Amino acid sequence: MSELYVVGIGPGSYENMTLRAIEALERCDVIVGYTVYVDLVKAHFPDKEFLTTPMRQEVARVQLALETAQSGRSVAMICSGDAGVYGMSGLCEEMAKAYPDVTVRTIPGVSAVLSGAAILGAPLMHDFAVISLSDLLTPWETIERRLLAAAQANFVICLYNPASHKRKDHLMRACDLVLRFASPDTVCGIARNIGRDDESVTVLPLKELRTAEVDMFCTVFIGNSETQVINGKMVTPRGYIHA
Predict the structure, then answer these.
(1) How far apart are CA 178 and CA 162, in angstroms?
(2) Is 122 exposed, middle or buried (0-12, 13-18, 19+ CB in 10 A)?
(3) Which pLDDT score is estimated for 242?
(4) Whole-angstrom Cα distance, residue 88 to residue 105?
(5) Which of 49, 70, 210, 240 has its CA 20 to 30 A from that of 190?
(6) Would residue 240 count as lying in a domain?
(7) Domain that holds residue 64
(8) Pick the residue with more confidence: 196 or 226?
């Protein structure tokens, strides 16, 4: 049996990759991925062959990886963050049904919900929900229902894909939905370019988040009713200390 490793590379920096991810990439012959992600790892694995496809060619990318693995070569498909959180492991498992000689093995990585929370402070110390604002594969009506349910339940909410060139108003629309149940002063945070040279964080209230400048390299956190700013950081108390 040939093996296809689906590897989460975390935020992208070598230091933020797991040891298992590094070992898998060192062991393989070929690394397949979206062009931007391949550029993040190329310098650390110079002896590998790299195969890339542009954004929104995920099916072609997985087919390329599976066919390469079926030919007998050791292959790794890389994803940012964790391969099983808005990553490629699900599609690889689905498409591998047509390649019975290839076994898919997922190597977990550090998702942006975790790495972003770490640089913002401690926003996820209580229950939270993760929702993508991309409506490429999910109808906006479904996203709306999920946002409203999470806000009504007083979850901390982490937003992936908060904006793009075609979705410039999605964060504003999401904030307006959350504001039906949350205070305008709810503590929020933006983690930008996590783990990279121009990494930055912003802590701000919900009423200001709705007009904040964000892009696809941002992960957004909306606190719950207990979330606070402590020493400039976003913190959601678990409840260990009672007034």
Answers:
(1) 14
(2) middle
(3) 67
(4) 11
(5) 240
(6) no
(7) 2-107
(8) 226
Provide the 8-state DSSP code for 224.
-
Half-sphere exposure of 206 (CA within 13 A, CB side): 25
In-domain check, residue 243: no
pLDDT given at position 167: 76
Listed in sequence order, the DSSP H helices in 192-243 are 206-209
Both tokens of 1, joined, read: 């049996």
- Return the closest-CA partner of residue 8 out of 68, 76, 100, 98: 76
The gap from C-alpha 11 to its chain's centroid, in whole angstroms, comes to: 8
Structure token pair of residue 177: 């939905």
Stated as kind and residue range, the H or E segment containing 65 is helix 58-70
**Partners of 74 in the beta sheet?**
none
pLDDT of 240 > 60? The answer is yes
* Secondary structure letter of residue 209 according to DSSP: H
Q: The domain that contains 176 carries what CATH number?
A: 3.30.950.10
Q: Are strands 187-192 and 200-205 parallel, antiparallel or unpaired?
A: antiparallel
Contacts of 60 (CB under 8 A, 6+ apart): 53
Distance (Å, whole) CA 126 – CA 193: 24
> Are 194 and 153 contacting, i.e. CB atoms less than 8 angstroms apart?
no
